[in-house]
Design a protein that fits this description.
Layout (H helix, E strand, L loop, with lengths): L10 H19 L8 E2 L2 E2 H12 L12 H4 L3 E4 L16 E4 L1 H7 L17 H4 E4 L4 E4 L5 H13 L7 H13 L13 H4 L1
Antiparallel strand pairs: 1-2, 3-4, 5-6
This protein binds zinc ion.
Length: 195
Amino acid sequence: MRKQERLDEPAALRNEAATWTEGWIRQQSEGKAWRWPVRDKQPLNQIILPTLRKQTASHCSFCDGFPVASLSIETIEHFYPKSSFPERAFEWSNLFYSCTRCQAAKKERFDSNILKPDESDYDFSRYFICDYTTGRLEPNPSAPLEDQQRAETTILHYKLNDAFLPDERRRWLQIRSRMDSNTELDDFAYRDFLA
Ligand SMILES: [Zn+2]
């Protein structure tokens, strides 16, 4: 999970977030399912995806898979779930570019210990270490216990060591080892693992 700097909020979201939030709170109380609102015949997720994609250089905000468009459908993850935090459903700082695997892993769950990739004091190496033999991410054993717990909670919620991810990280590590050390990491998946 790489640190990201938030780009400027798209105007469409800034201008209408309050109205849409009110609408979603009402729809939710009527038992209606979530749908992105439509503006000028375009769903809002399609309007804001380009900015979110640029913010991570086309990498998933959580697993850092790249390019998301070739792994899965490009989705937008609500860090604070829209079901239990409806008032944050259209908050720019709550929206993250994500692959469908990470989104399906976390679902509508939430834990205040989960690390947020755009938090000002977030840094990959503060919380995590890479095990290059297994391909797994582990909490940084030199970090304070509280930080280690946050790393562990993040790994569990986004299932960052599940299924194919450790194998994929090791595969990319091999590809990376055959390339120039100056190679731009934005062209790779799992950048923190390869750095
Ligand atoms: Zn992902």
